[in-house]
Fold each of these.
Amino acid sequence: MYTGSATQRSLFSWKISNAGKLHALFMRNAKKEGVLPIHEIARTMHELCVYPSRAQVEDMVQCANYCSPREFDHITFSEFAVLATELQDAYKQCQIFPCSGAARRQRRRQKARAFARKLRRGYSSLQVFLGGSCNPTTWRRDVAIPFLKNFNITFYNPQVSQWRPELLELEDQAKEASEVLFFVIDNETRCVSSIIEAAYYAGYQRQLILVLKPCSAPGAMLCNEILSESECRELTHAQTSLRDLVERQCIPVFTDIEVALECTSKIILNSTRVQDLVLTDGAQLVRYPHLHVGKRLIALKEAFRSVDSSNSGCIDFNELCLAYRAVTNMQFNPQWLTDEQQEDGLFTFEQFCELWAECRQRIPNWSLVRYLFTVILDCVLRTIAHVFLCLLTVFGFHMEDSRKEKWGKDVYLGGVCISSNWKHQAITLLKKYGVTYYECLSSTLLRESAQENCRMLLYVIPADSRALFLMAEAAYFIGRRKNLVLCVKLLPHDVPIDESKLSSQAVRDYNRGRAYLSDIANREGVPVFDDITEAVHCVIRKVSSRPSHSLGSIATSCAI
């Protein structure tokens, strides 16, 4: 359990230089109780030139809660010191080797797509597409259009008084031609199609400016209806998922339209990328969102528990040295402790964390040195092997390429966490054919890792759930051109969700989103089914054959 006051936890902070700096930063942003609220974690770490995503902050708090159970809304100083130090170490490694092979391939695809769009749009001078919430919102007329006119920036406004079907083609051409896609997701409409569309363009790696307005509280009016508690949770979850998807591309998310417009003008006038915005622009920066945070904190807790045999919450000096060696594989240097503390002192887990953070910053980073040596050695060996294979080919020997793709499990099941009757049917079929799968994962970063490392993704949009966040995820991975199979079921009229029936307007809104998602999938060659059995069999056929990154090959195979 959580023990110790703020003063006890910062026992070493004023005697140790590095921990003292972290403590001063922590206390400037902490509450009176000596804890850092979850909404202040990212802003506090910005002062250390560390820019975590929302999902990373969530994982930090989850790991802290695992180590010392408490309310899921804050971290203590000792936890902050460990988490900040861990992220700083990871940033150093990423800055030395900023691009993995996958990242380089992704960047080449992004450049190729941008060049193809440039060729298609020809001499079009359209700069900004104003997407997102439409009627009855007035943010385009009142704020965005006057601002863009003032900076002589060209734009396309899809909001018209009388919409006609022939406008669809014009909108698609405008989206394709625009340099920046400016999307506002507000709280006056459900924004179902806009959320799906923004997720798709984030995955497609377009230059996206996204403004998210928090959902209204239950009981507020939404589309001339009273917003229920269950729909409020669903819309909030969808916005959170959209933010996580956008931040995976290092794209900052805005809450203020005026600030977002200022950043748009900078991107257009200075020919920069949205990922190149800085804190002074008012952007909430995100860097290296793929990094997993909190592993070191959990390792410290497990080492502390292993030596605290009496479960008293305190360890002596000898036990402290043993726990430190278990975590770092190095001997603890007691130079920062007094003789009295070494002989008679007892140390809490919070103090153990502070000492680790201090030692981590003072001791040479041998793990980084080992990492550099491993990478350099790997490059040398790969070069030698490549030259050797080329020589064999010259002399008439042909070697088969034995390299294999590194995968996790076969299939990621999108939507199994929703209470729906399709889960048992799908899993039974997958087990029958020996197909491995990822089911429900609690951590956002774990889900992201599973989605990136599986061979295929199966997303089921059921007929008994709004499933807006699922549609956003599916659209994102369609934009990413991941191997994907969709099963989309329309909501029937008067369908009961969470013991309440949806209105006719709500059913139309969510079904319109389903239709839009299916349209995106068809354009990109993603197979779409309305029967779960057919969709699962399509997945089984694909994972049983040779892995392929081509969406067109999936659609062709599933059509046979």
Amino acid sequence: MTIGGFLAYALVIGTIPILAVPCAHLDTANGFVCVCNATYCDTVPSVNLVPGSAALVESGEKLGVMQPSSIAFNHSISTDGKAVITINASTHYQTLLGFGGAFTDAAALNIQALSPATQEKLLSSYYSPSGSGIGYTIGRVPMASCDFSTHEYSYDDYVGDFALTNFSLTTEDIHMKIPLIQLANKLAGHPMNLFGSPWSAPGWLKTNGKMIGKASLKGSAGDKYHKTWALYFVKFLEEYAKHNLTFWGLTVQNEPSDGNIPFFFFQCMYFSAAMERDFIKMDLGPALESHGFQDVKLMILDDQRTHLPSFAQTVLSDPEAAKYVSGVAVHWYLDAVASPNDLTETHNSFPKHFILATEACEGSVPTERGVRMGSWSRAESYANDIITDLNHWVVGWTDWNLALNTTGGPNWADNLVDSPIIVEASKDEFYKQPMYYALGHFSAFIKPGSVRVQSTLSSPPLTILHLETVSFLTSMEVSGAVVDVITTVILNKHNVAQTVVLHDPAAGYIEHEMQANSIVTVQYSRS
């Protein structure tokens, strides 16, 4: 049937029908995507919880995306030879901040190349709540240019302007990023948690005089170069505030280790852990505090977790630096060679400081560079990394570019990568890749403020290698009453189906056969 110009169909979750807009499926050489344009875009099904039943939403390489179903709980069930996930809702871990992506220049250029109606569909796909979008609540904003810009620029290229009297936002901020952030906030129904990240100081503040290449700030902490750079952060926050945009957080420096690599090919700046510590306690922390930004969450590192726990130990063991710091930011690019236990060790050493994943993307490896349209394996990589991070005290997960073009740009340094949404401006349409739906299995259903609870996986030896799971507890209003709701995400990385049993002593047992290479979100009320 047709409703408002949209093909629609009735889905059943529990016993209540949910109206959702299905994927406009398009097969690709690497898998499939869902096509969206000004008049049509699929939506995420809402979940209406029914006592005694669990709502399931499942996506898979062969299954499609966001397929809903329901299963009634049983008091007992045979678990022989099956994977069993046991929920212990009385054991609590970290509180969830949320999920999001980055408002880069490249993302803004691609989104604004679409018609206004299609732009709104794209941002709604991310920032509108479940029932329409996947409920993002985080936005990362580069402070001036990065590689995903069309050129190098800073906010003050006037040599010797230590008072930053010539500081000003650029057209990339005023006419591109800011309008999109404002629209995303409107679609979300609330301001997102924005955080800013610098790639480089203006060249005149740096040892090599350039925004690229191996270099650090001139001088040392406490001098005029460092004071000016600290003021740059303040000016950035003040200028965005003039557009009614308030920042929740800042990272001290994007990937500071890049600035120690000879001939590094895009914007970067080096800080060792000790240099970052001294800059925070002598310059940046006091500057933020004296200008009324003491509540902005300052995050250290913003680099690979291979630097943990040593980087955090250097900065946070100094109380004069630690008092200005709220968290540790990590990127995903070396996660394959860095143990997630480093995250847990960091948390255990500094439990008052959160850990936030602040950047991830597929397509950055030279042998797999750029867009791989429709790839399910890239969706699995996202889901696996999110589950691993969440199981090791990470409070949220931030994707990189919200949208790129079909080649994975623009990027002035030709550092092309992939994105969950790909824009084809010539057709006024965009493509939701499997990565988008992998993210949605978490962000659409696990709300900020949810608390991770213990979920123990036991299964036959070969099966356990292919299953990953994480669970959260949320207090939620259901049928006029506030109840405890469990949301569990399960990833099956195996190329064969897996029978999974979920057991919660407060609710009972459910059994579900997960399709090969699939993700399922399970949600139910415990009362």
